[in-house]
Predict the structure.
Amino acid sequence: MKTRLLFTHALSPLHAGTGQGVGVIDLPIAREKATGLPFLPGSSVKGSLRDSCPDNISLNGVQIECTRVFGPKKERAEEHASSVQFSDQRLLLLPVRSLRGTFAWVTSPYVLRRLVRDARDADPKTANGLALDVPVPASSENAQECFVTGASELKLDGKVYLEDLDLTVGNDAAKAKQTEAWAGALAAKVFPNDTTWQDYLKRRFCIVPDDVLNFLLDTATEISARIALDANAKTVAEGQLWYEEALPCETVLCGLVFAAKIVSANVEPDTTFKVIENLTREQANGSTIFKPVQLGGKATVGRGFCHLIVSS
């Protein structure tokens, strides 16, 4: 079995729901029970890719049946297992409104440490370029410390203002160097071969304490009021006003994708990854561009268009 990291970049608000909420939000997003971090179920990723896969896909002139990679249909499920497996896509970078720089891509030490663990699972020798030390911001009762890059557009008089929070920029040289390394590594993974967007991420990258991220997860997600109109009166139909939550556009999530050798289906892990790459990217004018994939719910109102980036 071979393993790679998979990054999900939201091009529109992403709603991976739980079905029904018990609070003021009728349709909340899915969150991990212990940490409260949002996630996108791996089954959503696999289902969308399988649905978009044609009966046969051409790889270097060889026709590959998608059922060999994603598994046969339900009535033939006993024939062989799926070659590809997806873990849940868990939050990596949360876009948060900023007084300077428009918005910040925010993460925290715990999120980065978990990414390092996943990277080592994917490739123990090199950790896919993410075997980095994690700078840990210090906090006190009177101030919160964050870390940004030297070229950051978020700083204003030594502080970063996110939503209603004002955070002090840390001046520890070692941690600042680690922050630069993280910004560069993530930019290269999320926006491969796109130096413009890599630069955007580096100038908007921000590491905050875990507690601050927990607060932002309650205040920086997108809440929309939805209604259904009475066709005759053109007013809200009875019981047809509800509120739904979504991860904002520009959110970045990350997880693992596994590819196993299936002897009975005559499929190798490298073939599986090539099929996935064929479904998520294409060549245009001599360069690689990513094709939007719809993930999560509310597709008919434009939710969940994402880029899927399989790390090499």
User: Anything to note?
Assistant: The first strand starts at residue 2 and ends at 10. Residues 94-220 form one domain.
